[in-house]
Amino acid sequence: MDRRKGFAFHPEDWLSDTRLALCSYATKGAWMDILCHMFQSPRAGYLMVDEKVLNKDDVQLMLKCRTQGEFELIWGELLNNGVMKQHADGTYYSKRMVLDAERISMNWTATKED
Predict the structure, then answer these.
(1) Based on C-alpha coordinates, what's the Rg of the chain?
(2) DSSP percent split of the chain into helix, strand, coil, nearest 5
(3) Considering only CA atoms, which of 33, 38, 40 is closest in space to residue 71?
(4) Are 71 and 60 in contact (CB under 8 A)?
């Protein structure tokens, strides 16, 4: 399957998501960076680099936060507000991106089989 160059961004969803609205601007910016990494993951929508599942320490390094406190605020807001989810296997993910990737994959498979 060809790798897509971008993912859908829905401004109306971004602005109306009450969980995201509870987050600070720093967290919203970090979330956008995390979404970009999730998109590039071999498992679209999941926070991985190559085949490595990223843990909290990896994400802290990736975001390059200036202080531990800044990172803890971002991490807490993402998880406590339900913006970022954690799969049973421990992998962090974006529910919306995973659903979008599944829909695209189903459409691609159906088109290929026709």
Answers:
(1) 15
(2) 60, 10, 35
(3) 33
(4) yes
Given a contact cutoff of 8 angstroms between Cβ atoms, the answer to whether 22 and 81 are in contact is: yes
Alpha-carbon gap, residue 45 to 100, rounded angstroms: 9
Long-range contacts of 46-49, Cβ-Cβ distance < 8 Å, separation of 24 or more? 46/87, 46/91, 46/92, 46/93, 46/98, 47/84, 47/91, 47/92, 47/93, 48/91
Quick one: which of 23, 33, 42 has its CA closest to 91?
42
pTM listed for this prediction: 0.86
Distance, in Å, from the CA atom of 97 to the CA atom of 9, rounded to the nearest integer, reads 10
Cβ–Cβ < 8 Å for 31, 84: yes
Q: How would you classify the pairing of strands 92-93 and 85-86?
A: antiparallel
pLDDT tens sequence across 21-38: 999 999 999 999 999 999
Question: Is-contact 74 25, C-beta < 8 A?
Answer: no
